[in-house]
Each structure stands twice: as structure tokens, then as C-alpha cells.
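User: quick one, sequence for these C-alpha cells?
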């Protein structure tokens, strides 16, 4: 048998992680330990099961170790096994058994206007801060390959580069910070990959989550628009080179952001998104903690319906007004325009080119949720386009709204061919 395991104190975990410089690593995604071996029968280095420093009772010394997963926007995941046994740290170092760790050149982090790091793959990571409508600073993580992106003069920031802005902002989670094959392909193509850490997520702790859930859900929408405006105002990208992406519950803020601020975006990709929130939340008990219980409090349903993407699609008249405003925008005429993809129209579209990816067998977000959104939006866009072309001719580009359905569940698009198709859609619209 093995000796009973003593609980590993949280401070020991943090201390061990700090020794290997994993805690505080810029933009690192540190998941909870996957395996904590608190009662391993393996003897510590230098100990014996029968004699020696481990004692003469024949019992094996107990080792405490933890495996930490590190992944970033530019680096593939790696796992470091950290031995928490104080006596074995020196022995492990002497025998060169300490795990390798990702190296970075850090230049300071915090709430400064800009913080920069460069990882082992040569990908530059920048943390900047956008300012939301209520004055709240919103962290924004950027990753780009400086060998593929032109930089602003006297700055480490990209200049008018194609950019993909990812957002989630729900359940206190920060999806999208880890390495993916699609992100690696986009970085290699000179695309800036950005993650908006809006309220409702968990980057800045529980209070940040609370500030973006329930009655405060629209704060995440405003934060998303603020991050998009910051990318444009800072010269990092251009409205004709910015794509918004979201997955699952990230569709709440992304869909609402497209409804209210779509001139900021050239394209959007929504993967298994929840969009018809007001109609489906009464059957989704998991959303009660995040949005409230509409059965116990009818006011919750009214509040959700006020921002639910499927219930607030812009009317044809509103789409036309925004299109005219985009044509008259002085910045559009004075700022240098990026090159357009081959055959693309110079005239702004009525709505961002949108790809909605749906899992037919999805039990987390039922397929009819995004399908209803697509059907409603398609009607609105068709009516607006018919009205505009009837007055100004056929030079107005037809809206692009695609729904891709696959016979799979919530993760059916996490395969190479689907990721490649998504990258092709994005590059066709934002890269010249």
C-alpha cells in the first residue's frame, strides 16, 4: 500500500509555478492542474524503499507534483511537471530533470498603455487597453508576426494590418487565448490575432465577470465595440480589414455588437453561436446563473429581449442609413484605404460578410437557434439591398450571409478541414 497523502497547500502550487515562471507569463492560459499526484508511491530522488534518507521502515517517500499546461496565442501547448517535494527540488536540478519551460522576453506587464513580449516562435504579443463607453479600461491582447506585418513608424504596433478580433465574455471564462491551428495559419499570413477581454469574462477576476452578467450583460457588448474602435483608431487595422469571431455563448456579445456597430467590421464568423437568447433561455438552466431566471423573475426575460441578437436585428431602413453614413464618412475618404481582395467592390456593404457555422446534432446550442437568426437577417438584408439598388443601381455589393451546417455536435468544427475553410473565408474578405 501507499502512505496516506497530505493535501497540497495552494500556496505550494503557486510557489512551484512561480519558480518555473509560469504564473504571470504574458497572455498565458494556465488551466487548473490536470493531475495532482498527492500520494505517489514513487520514492523521491536519493531515497530508498528499504533504507537511506527515506527511513528504515520500508515505506516509500511521498512526492507531491503537479502538471501545468501552458499555451499562448503563438505557442503550441506544452506541459511542465513540477515536483512540489521540497527535498527533491535540489536533487532534480542536479540531475537536470526539471522540465523545460516556454521562454519569453518580457518588457513589463500591468495596466500600462502597451506591454510587449516576444515568444520563442518569434510571435510578438502586445497587451493594450481600450476605453469603454463608461470609461472602464478593457484589456485587449494582440499577437502578430512582425516578420509578416508592417509596423507603424516608431512603434511596435502593426500598421493597417488585417485583423481577427475574438470575443467570448461569458461564464467568467477566457476562451480563445490558447494556440490553435487556425490562428497559427492566420499569423503566418500576416493577420493580427486579437482577443477582447470584455466584462463577463474572467481575466480580471470574479468582479470582472459580475460586471458583465445578468442585468449588466450589455457592458460586454460596449466593451467589444470599444476594442474594435481602439484597433481602428490606433491605426492597427482598418474597418475593411477587421473580422469579428465568436463561439457558443460568445455569440451573445458578438451578435449584439454586429447589430449596433457593424460598420466597424468587414466580416464575422460565428461558430455554434447562441443568438436567439430570449426564445431559448427558458429551456436552458445553465444560462440562469449568467443571465438570470426568467421563470422566477419575468423582468429578466424583458431585459434579455432588449439585447438578444435575433430580436434586435437592424431594420432595412436602419441598414440603409448606416450604409449612407459609411459612404459619407470623412475618414473613409481621407485615410489610406487598404488594398481590396481581387474582384471586391470598393463600395461598403450593407452588413459584414457573415459565416454562421451550425452543428446539426449540437445539444449545447440547438441548430434552430442560429438558423432563426440567419433567416431573419437574410430577409432584412434582402429588403435593404433591393431598396438601395432600386435607387442607385447595381453597384452596391450584395450582402454575404452563409450558414454552414455539419452533422455533428458542439465541437464539430474543431477539425483541420473546417478550420481551413474558416481561414479561407476570413482571408478572402480582410486580406488584400
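Assistant:
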Amino acid at each position: 500500500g501507499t502512505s496516506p497523502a497530505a493535501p497540497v497547500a495552494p500556496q505550494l502550487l503557486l510557489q512551484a509555478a512561480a519558480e518555473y515562471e509560469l504564473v504571470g507569463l504574458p497572455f498565458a492560459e494556465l488551466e487548473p492542474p490536470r493531475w495532482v499526484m498527492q500520494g505517489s508511491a514513487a520514492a523521491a530522488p536519493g531515497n530508498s524503499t528499504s533504507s537511506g534518507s527515506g527511513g528504515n521502515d520500508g515505506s516509500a517517500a511521498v512526492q507531491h507534483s503537479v502538471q501545468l499546461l501552458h499555451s499562448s496565442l503563438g505557442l503550441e501547448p506544452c506541459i511542465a511537471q513540477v515536483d512540489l517535494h521540497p527535498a527533491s527540488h535540489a536533487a532534480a536540478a542536479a540531475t537536470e530533470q526539471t522540465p523545460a519551460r516556454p521562454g519569453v522576453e518580457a518588457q513589463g506587464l500591468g495596466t500600462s498603455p502597451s506591454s510587449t513580449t516576444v515568444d520563442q516562435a518569434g510571435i510578438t504579443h502586445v497587451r493594450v487597453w481600450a476605453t469603454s463607453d463608461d470609461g472602464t479600461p478593457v484589456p485587449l491582447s494582440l499577437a502578430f508576426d512582425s516578420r509578416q506585418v508592417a509596423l507603424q513608424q516608431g512603434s511596435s504596433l502593426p500598421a493597417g494590418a488585417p485583423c481577427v478580433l475574438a470575443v467570448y465574455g461569458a461564464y467568467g471564462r477566457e476562451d480563445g487565448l490558447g494556440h490553435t491551428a487556425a490562428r497559427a495559419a492566420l499569423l503566418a499570413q500576416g493577420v493580427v490575432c486579437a482577443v477582447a477581454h470584455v466584462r463577463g469574462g474572467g481575466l480580471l477576476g470574479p468582479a470582472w465577470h459580475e460586471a458583465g452578467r445578468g442585468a449588466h450583460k450589455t457592458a460586454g457588448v460596449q466593451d467589444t465595440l470599444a476594442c474594435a474602435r481602439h484597433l481602428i483608431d490606433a491605426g492597427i487595422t482598418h474597418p475593411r480589414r477587421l473580422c469579428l469571431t465568436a463561439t457558443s455563448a460568445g455569440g451573445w456579445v458578438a451578435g449584439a455588437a454586429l447589430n449596433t456597430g457593424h460598420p466597424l467590421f468587414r466580416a464575422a464568423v460565428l461558430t455554434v453561436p447562441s443568438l436567439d437568447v430570449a426564445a431559448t433561455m427558458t429551456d436552458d438552466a445553465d444560462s440562469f446563473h449568467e443571465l438570470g431566471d426568467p421563470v422566477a423573475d419575468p423582468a429578466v426575460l424583458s431585459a434579455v429581449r432588449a439585447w438578444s441578437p435575433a430580436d434586435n436585428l437592424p431594420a432595412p431602413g436602419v441598414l440603409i442609413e448606416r450604409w449612407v453614413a459609411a459612404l459619407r464618412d470623412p475618414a473613409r475618404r481621407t485615410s489610406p484605404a487598404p488594398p481590396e481582395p481581387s474582384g471586391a467592390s470598393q463600395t461598403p456593404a450593407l452588413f459584414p460578410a457573415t459565416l454562421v457555422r451550425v452543428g446539426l446534432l449540437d445539444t449545447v446550442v440547438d441548430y434552430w437557434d442560429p438558423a432563426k437568426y440567419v433567416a431573419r437577417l437574410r430577409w432584412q438584408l434582402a429588403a435593404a439591398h433591393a431598396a438601395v439598388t432600386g435607387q442607385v443601381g447595381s453597384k452596391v455589393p450584395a450582402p454575404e450571409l452563409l450558414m454552414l451546417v455539419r452533422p455533428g455536435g458542439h465541437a464539430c468544427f474543431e477539425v483541420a478541414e473546417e478550420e481551413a475553410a474558416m481561414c479561407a473565408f476570413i482571408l478572402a474578405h480582410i486580406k488584400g
